[in-house]
Amino acid sequence: MGEANLVTVASPSTDDPRHYIAIRWAAVRSPVPFIKNRDACFTHMDVECDGRKGWVRALKSIDLPECHHLRGLVRMDLLRCGHVVLESPGRPDCVQVHILVHLDMKGLVPAWIEDLWMKRTCQGLRALRKAVVAKRLAATDLVHQHLSSRTCELCARPFTFGTTKVHCRQCSQVMCNECSSTTTSSQEHRQALPVCTTCELATSTKLPSFIAIDAPFVGLLHR
């Protein structure tokens, strides 16, 4: 639904780019209309790990008088929540992402509703890979586009009148819509980046050993 940074205690620096401490507020939408939406006021802390490459994000609710309870929202309590992202041992091209979710939703929330909330959280995890691919593609230079192609360079389907040619953001192959996969840049302007299915697969298997993604607040539940 929305989130806001209330107070920044410590900002990232050149020497410590992943050190961040703040007080934040966020609201999450209920998966069903008869259960009220939830919000939380919490401390947000990012620190870099010692030893293996990685970082830890810790979230914990606080009672801040200036952060008033809002009409239509139930204030939940984040007890122990966060993320741990570590470089996989022996696999510098992979990272391990762990999520800890321990909170009190407050109020009467059926178990099956909590399961729906958890499903939404897991769907957010599935989007992490796409965000990493988009970040990598956004850093590459766009090569020359071949405007004269008459067929899709992946499936060899001929381009007919009215067919839109799509150029891969990474290799510049001309392809049809069926052979393209559109991802979104993680930069400020959130530019749409068309890529061919071949490059998307290659990029996802050649990711840098460590990429920090500023992921949005996602729905959490008590377990």
The biggest beta sheet is recorded as:
7 strands, mixed
Q: What is the tally of helical segments?
A: 2
Which word captures the global form?
A: extended
Helix-strand pattern: EEEEEEEHEEEEH
And the CATH topology of the domain at 2-129?
Alpha-D-Glucose-1,6-Bisphosphate, Chain A, domain 4
Poorly predicted tracts of residues: 205-223
**Which structural class matches the secondary elements?**
alpha+beta
Q: Tally the beta strands.
A: 11
Q: Helical percent range?
A: 10-25%
The CATH homologous superfamily of the domain at 2-129: START domain
Taking the alpha carbons of the first and last residues, their distance comes to 22 Å
CATH architecture of the domain at 2-129: 2-Layer Sandwich
Keywords: Metal-binding, Zinc, Zinc-finger
Protein name: FYVE-type domain-containing protein
GO molecular function: zinc ion binding
Pfam families: FYVE
